[in-house]
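Q: I'm writing up a methods section and want to include an example of the input and output format. Could you take the sequence below and give the corresponding predicted structure tokens, formatted cleanly so I can copy it straight into the document?
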Amino acid sequence: MKQVQVKICGVTNVRDARACAELGADMIGLNFYRGSPRYIEPEVAREIVASLPRRVCPVGVFVEPAVEEVRKIAQTVSFTAVQLHGEVSPGTCGQLARAFRVIRALSTDGEFRPHDAVQFRDCDVLLDTAHPQFHGGTGTTCDWAAARATLPFTRFLILSGGLNAQNVGAAIAAVQPRAVDVCSGVEVAPGVKNHSAVEQFIAAVRATEVAALTPPA
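A: Here is the clean output for your methods example:
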């Protein structure tokens, strides 16, 4: 079993970013969608990225952005990975994939089909919960069965949606993703991380891996 990567999304300040990195996060999500309570200005994001060790991947999170908007913010912030929500075409994803690692976020709503991921061959795929107003961070669990069925159609699957230290082990066992993404499950308020909850979440992920490698008695 490959090590499951951990992405902490909706980081809004240097203190939380450093704590997440020290506790073992592999990716940090920085939200540039103005409609989100976790939105941060590019100048703040630049300070956060500068504080991270090189092993941690900063991810710019966008909702239906123009390609030039992504490029402009990337020049200010210095990230090389982007996460795209909403109505974003495969063509736009492919265009951005020439310069960035692209994570295409899809919702497991009633219209979702696992085969939909095939359209985004140049992207990693993140599966989250469908919500009529919000693009992530809702605290609601997504459809794990649909997520597991998506595995054959994507190169790298990230599982999101309502994860926390109590359920992430079961989620990994059910879906077998390459990474897990948590936001509200490790917060005391939108954009304010609970460092103890982050530590417990990452420990729960690592415990799942140890259990998978331990032979039965």
